[in-house]
Design brief:
Layout lengths: L1 E5 L10 H9 L2 E4 L2 H7 L6 E2 L7 H15 L5 E5 L8 H12 L5 E4 L4 H8 L20 E4 L5 H10 L2 E8 L7 E5 L13 E7 L3
Parallel strand pairs: 1-4, 1-5, 2-3, 2-4
Antiparallel strand pairs: 6-9, 7-8, 7-9
């Protein structure tokens, strides 16, 4: 098994209980930088793998080949700052591992991302639509809708923005978690749970 573990914004006390448990239990923990190293080392000694500018693809290739072989029989965690699914080095490693050995099981343990951490630190309460992007301000590819209790109505509006396919996620990480993918609005339910998110992505023509 290959785990991608989110270490959060930089404070070891902000790790989830699950992240700490897996860090302690796996055969090895790999970290991509010294700040990540300093956080994980509070729980165990990790292995530091640097991803220097200009050579990151080469490092990713070598590490992925190693993990694609080892993770058939070992449990290894790649722990990085923030959330592994959000602008993370883990994405490139995981994609390459799956390309080399599609049979490898991968699980992502979410971490607190920096953009939500800053709201907490600055006592900023978000109660209106929000755009999260990078300094490059690219064209929006993903749209996430929180509290999507009227999914069919929301999907109709997203289709006007070029979204053809959505993920409907109800009560994620709760006992009654349900995740469905829809490409046809006719099959989308009229109503869903209060704890529902919709994730849409624009597909290239």
């Amino acid at each position: 098994m290959l785990y991608g573990i989110g270490l959060g914004p930089g404070d070891a006390e902000l790790l989830t209980l699950k992240a700490v448990r897996i860090i302690k239990e796996v055969d090895e923990v790999i970290v991509p930088g010294r700040l990540a190293y300093s956080i994980v080392s509070k729980f165990r000694e990790p292995r530091l793998v640097e991803f220097p500018m200009g050579k990151s693809e080469e490092v990713t290739e070598r590490l992925a080949e190693e993990l694609a072989s080892r993770c058939d029989e070992e449990d290894i965690a790649f722990a990085s700052l923030g959330d592994p699914a959000f602008y993370s080095t883990f994405q490139h490693v995981a994609e390459k591992v799956m390309e080399i050995n599609p049979s490898i099981e991968i699980e992502i343990i979410p971490g607190i991302p920096s953009f939500t951490s800053v709201f907490s630190r600055t006592m900023t309460f978000v109660d209106a639509p929000m755009l999260v992007t990078t300094a490059k301000m690219p064209e929006i590819e993903y749209i996430t809708v929180l509290k999507a209790s009227k999914p069919k109505e929301i999907y109709a509006k997203l289709k006007e923005e070029g979204i053809k396919r959505i993920i409907l996620a109800e009560r994620i990480y709760m006992d009654s978690e349900k995740i469905e993918v829809f490409e046809d609005i006719e099959n989308v339910p009229e109503k869903s749970d209060y704890f529902t998110l919709i994730v849409g992505r624009k597909e290239n023509e």
